[in-house]
Design goal:
10 helices; globular; mainly alpha
């Protein structure tokens, strides 16, 4: 499994070879067809499924296909049904949040549905609050799938800032990107392009640092 994931990653990122989305897809697809022998295999396969979702959701390398991304996310949730651990809980939250993103955006084989998106984000938050918290704040702020509630959006945003800021200060790129989104969009707070730009620069610097390590 790890070897196939590695080969998929090489093709995905073009490490020493040309970027090839179809080859990455081929290796990842082969990997998820393998039955896991232990818990490490199980979570390695969750990582592969996350890569497959991103391939079809972002459209950076392959053509966008939200229906295919939805399929992999639902398979991931089903795959973890019998797992009982914090890691399984977190991965399930990630897949649920991915489904929220898919239905919030809509298109590419999926009908936009804010109510479904809100429900998926809420279910995700019940498992791992950090994962969909920004999206939930945005849903409340703009009344998407739920009655508009700016106070609730502000409460969620304040919790998010409290949670992500110390992690961002330590160089956690995901946390930095969440803060960028809050300040760029003004989710529960006043828009602050300058602060968003500052955090964005820190994210880029951290990515370069990690690449060179």
């Amino acid at each position: 499994i790890e070897a196939m994931q590695y080969l998929g990653d090489l093709n995905l990122h073009g490490e020493g070879i040309a970027i090839d989305g179809n080859s990455a897809l081929e290796w990842y697809t082969k990997a998820i067809q393998i039955k896991p022998e232990n818990r490490d295999d199980t979570f390695s396969l969750c990582g592969v499924r996350s890569r497959l979702i991103d391939l079809f959701y972002t459209g950076k390398i392959l053509e966008k296909n939200f229906a295919k991304a939805e399929e992999y996310a639902k398979e991931g949730i089903q795959f973890l049904n019998n797992e009982n651990s914090q890691s399984a809980n977190n991965y399930t939250a990630i897949f649920l949040s991915d489904l929220g993103d898919i239905y919030k955006a809509g298109g590419f084989g999926i009908k936009q549905d804010y109510i479904k998106a809100f429900n998926y984000y809420t279910e995700s938050a019940n498992k791992w609050k950090a994962r969909p918290i920004i999206a939930l704040g945005e849903m409340y702020q703009n009344g998407l799938g739920i009655k508009k509630d700016k106070q609730k959006a502000q409460e969620i945003s304040n919790k998010a800032i409290t949670y992500f800021t110390p992690r961002a200060d330590k160089g956690n790129v995901y946390s930095i990107e969440q803060l960028v989104e809050i300040y760029e969009k003004g989710i529960g707070v006043k828009k602050d392009p300058a602060l968003a730009k500052e955090w964005k620069a820190k994210a880029e610097a951290q990515k370069v640092k990690e690449t060179n390590q």
